[in-house]
Amino acid sequence: MAWWTIRTRKVSFAGSFVAMVCAQVLITACGVLLDAGSRATPVQGGADVVSFVVPFGFVCLFVMAFAVGGAFSLSVQQRMREIALLRAVAATPGQVRRLIGYEALVVTVVAAVPGCGLGVLLAGGLRAWLVAQDMIPDAFPLHFGPLSILTALLICWVTAEAAVWSSGRRASRVHAVQALGEASLPRRRAGVVRTCCGLAVLGGGVWGLAAIGSSGGSDAANSAVAMVMVLMVAVGLLAPWIGKLAGAGLGLLCQALFPVVGLLVRTNLVAGYRRLGAAATPLALTVAFAAVALFVPQMKWHEQQEQDGQRMMADQVVQSNGNGLPATAARTLLKTQGAGAVLGTTGTYVTVPVGDDASQPGPGGIAQAVTGGPLDEVLDLGVVQGTIHGLGPRDVALSRDLAHRAHVRAGDEVRLAMEDDRTEKVRVAAVYSRSRGFGEAVIPQGLTAGHLGGQLLQDAVYVRAKPGRRQQLAHGLAELRREKPSWRVLDRDAYRAEALRRQDASMIATYLLLVVVTVFTSISVVNTLVMTTMERSGEFALLRLVGATRRQVARMMRLENAVIVLAALLVGALVAGAVLSVFSHALTGSARPQLAGTTLALILGGAGILALATGVSTTSIALRQRPTSALRGAE
Q: What pTM did the predictor assign?
């Protein structure tokens, strides 16, 4: 019966099939890359692939759940009269639920052939892209087993079954006598369980925003995308209420602006609030995710560049083209003509344990182990507590974020856990504010020498010229560069250009994820609008039979699509605005984020144009049929 239903109602399942194919393409690609990454050695880049695929796949899985869930739920809602007839002829609730579950299984199996095949091809394309971006070596083998593909299929099928469970449960639990009435009239109230779950998730999202608002900028950045997911789950659960509010408020506006057609639009929106909420949710997800995925990295880089410009007092920065500079590099550069102050830095990682040992690790971050040079003459870290001049052998400086998370102040004695998990008792000599792109702690290199193992290498050496001798320093470093070809000398402009290059490289992965998610959500938006519009072909036919012209019906649908777009943009902007405001406050101390107007207009305008164009074109197709033929088809 499930196979027969899908064959005879291809239009109702077309959206579910497209969403499932896209889901299997993405999930299969992630599964193949994850399997290949786990088989590859670290030298072949296996760990790099795994670290890339895990967050990428998690986001794709979340968006896939929205797209597949919405498509299957709409297909069940469109067939409520058919399901009601089955209940009226003695089908049990369990049989109806199993029928809907088997339909989801059939769609999953049918979509497996193109979905898995394209997923393997996409995995090969992603591998080639990662190699081209120098993120993994060319030696990375794309070896995978059938288990990865079967796991991807299982994930997609379980997601589809979870999506239709709620709709199938509601459709199967109506009494047989009430079945036809339930099918002919929309449900008048939102489910209590769904509403309570939505409010609970919304409360958890608000609590999460409050929690990351008091954390450091790095923690807030890592949580921004997760908070969008949590809030959008709440939006999906509360979609009927969103449809009710949008239909009532925006319906009144339509009636006030267009009295004749607006009255019909308002009546349709109020009666079909569930349809309005279901259509607005994927579009709101597109807006919210695109805004956060684009603006969070941009805000981080803008703040980092601003702090880099304020922090840099050195005239030249010496780095290595290889694995690092020798430990004697700072002393060598100090002998260069024109060199005044020289400071070498080595990146490491430290944490502030909660207890007396490292058994309970606390907050931590990247630290810079510095040589004994005059730190305050080459770097202005923006000290807000204590002093950074003349750090002793057991004196450290902490960033304001790390000090806040560790609950320490300048002058306190703390224990730092080094990379080998051994601890050192130190004194916090200063707390500084300009840590973006530099590090969360500054510690003497002598303190880290016994913890890093092997010969201590320096990542960079900052050199400041003596007063009036910058040109002499530049010439001296140029001569040294000829003697040591593996050393790289950057002035301030070249250092900023290098930072911009790293920014562009880091944003490429973000753009890739954004493109994939935007395409997926756009397909979901198109599917939803097409399914909800074509479902109403009988309604359009009836309106035309009672005297409405095609132009009047088209105008009515344009207004309804405008309401859907406006409601989705408002909800998506509200979710994104809340997350970005909290992130901006954690990053800069200001709850007013600096957003690029062009990017914002592109996100909102692109989403709006996509939805409006889909609605207009679908309505035009639905109105091409003769009213009598469309009415018979609807029945």
A: 0.75
